[in-house]
Amino acid sequence: MNKNILLYTAILIFGLAAPFVFPAFKVQLSILCVLIVLAITWNIQGGEMGYNTFGNILFYGLGMYLCASVQVGMFFPLAEWTESGGEKTFVHTPAQFFQGMAAGLVVAAVVPTIVAGLIGYAILGLRGHYFAICTLGLGVAAGEISGGIEIIGAGQGFTTPPFPNVGGLEARGEFFYFLSFGALILTFLAVRSIYSTRFKLILNAIRDNEDKAEAMGIETMKYKIIGWMVSAFFCGLAGGIMGGLVGYIDSTDVAFDGREMGVFMVLMAILGGKGTLWGPVIGATVFHIFKEGFWTFFLGWQYVALGILIVVIVIYFPEGIMGWLREKYPERFGETIDEADRKAQVELK
Amino acid sequence: MDFMVFQYPMITVQACLDGLLLGILFALIAYGMALQWGVMNIINIAQGDLVILGGYIAYFMYLYGIHPAWGVIVSPIIMYFVGVGIYKLVINKVVDRDLFISILATFGISILFMQLMNFAFGADVVLANSGYGTTMLFDNNVTLPNSKIFSAFVSIVFAICLVIYMKKSKLGRAIRATAQNARAAKILGVDTEKVYAATFGINAALCGVAGALISITFTIHPYMGLPYTIRSFMIVIVAGLGNLPGVAMSGMGLGVFEEFADYILGTEFRIGSVFLLLVLILVYRRFKLSRKREYLK
To answer: Which of the residues A119, A123, A124, A133 would you substitute to probe the B interface, choosing the one with the greatest number of B C-beta atoms within 10 Å?
Structure first.
């Protein structure tokens, strides 16, 4: 228990100090926070519940568009904003920017949750690969359709409001870093507390044998929908932050980017270890470091590397880093990471 | 929204004919998918990328001055070996495992192929001009490119040849036996490993034929693969595995649907409507089955 508190404190101190210690990596660290959030949310679905989805990108992109639209729409006419493209005729005052961002993030988190609840009943009745392909279709359809809607910029994209001129040159990076770091802590703590309840056991029961879980009297559909809504909430939040961070939203290349973000979240969770609390965090960190290295040194070949990486991880390393560690150091594993979690898992097995 | 379709019957005729001819092509791709899904229990997300690769083979022949219609012969031969290569490298390691593993692994192959084709052939939309001209019907109100008729004809010929091959040949019998019960086939002396490789090769060859025809009839682009995968998946789940007339019918139905979506909603929503249709079909089947407390398997 002591070690846990030490670990958390160390991570918290590192997180708070990071933008000042490594000022050049602020944007990278913010993206890392968002990636970890996405990996954690995917893990709720794919890892704990056993419903492997390619469609969480839907909530991510929805959150991104909603946050930016609210941020602009609260103060200015949205259609004229998107029409003007890069050259802004309207300028947000600092107060307007932050109010808009706050309201936008709330909407970006709440609306995808509702959407997940609404479509969940229909889609979560599918199982296995049908669910996977159906969600893949949903994600791509959302990208194609949003690329045809005029008011959010259609094919030419949507420029999010630029950061107001306050607090010096470093302010933008620091603001978005702390925003995404805050979102990461919120997500991690929320998911950690969820995982310590009966709810997690129900999700695991659904993963292990859904028919049996139903026979035991668990209303599986209800819990599946709740699980999806939880993951949609944080996914939308992460999308909203990422939209502001990138500064430009395009339907298929940024928001509903199934080829990048949609695969990344699956890959990060699997790389770290499906169905563990820390797996997605470790997986996302390792993946991000690897990705940035590759994206920088092998520019142009990144998708080739990504494709090979997917195949290699999936075929040779499906248990992930956490699974590998668990197999190698069963005792040390439990002590250093999370004793209660491990015990619960061992008892379950 | 454009309701021209309902005011001018000739546009309806045009859309139906275009859709039917297109649908036969889709059915050919879907047949390949049904074959390997039925035999190996694998869903190949890279199906569409194999199609596009086949298309580029025909396009290259066109660039070097050979008539692209010969691609229909050359492309499946090359694609067969590409398919067997993919099987030996990746697919044989995921055959007996969880379906999601195969989906993800082939998704990786799909991304890899997309990017390699992008490097090799450039990101331009290209087409191989067959120079077949067009046929005018109904007082010049309906135009049908001869290349579409040619592609539909070739698809039908290939489909018939394949059906006969599967029925009569030794390998065809082995493939069907493996699909029915892989273990029993193994006991009775069928080399299932070889059968799997051949199945994946035949699937890739079918994709090659379809791709060559698509490069003549429509356009190809390195990133256009995924919609073909989704279409063939959709056709297979509507028709069921091993139901060839069903595959042909639902392929043509999908083609007609797409043409009408194109006219009514606009071209920018065409791909989106295909993906939405997939979601709708799956949800419809889920509700239909859930009345009997069953689910799609």
So the answer is: A133
